[in-house]
Amino acid sequence: PDEGPFPWVTALACNPHEKHIFAYAAGPSACAALLGGGPLNLKGLGGRLGLFDLRTRRCVAALRLEPAPAVVLCLRFNHNGTLLLTGGSDGYLRLYDTTVASQLMGWRPHTGPVRAICFTADETAALSLGDDGQVLQSTLHQVGQRCFSYSCPSLTAFRALGEPFTGWLERHGAALEGDELRFMPTALEVQGDYFVAGGLLTKSPPSAGKEPVAIPLALIYRCRNP
Question: Hey, which bits of 28-82 come out as E strands?
Answer without folding.
Answer: 48-53, 58-63, 72-77
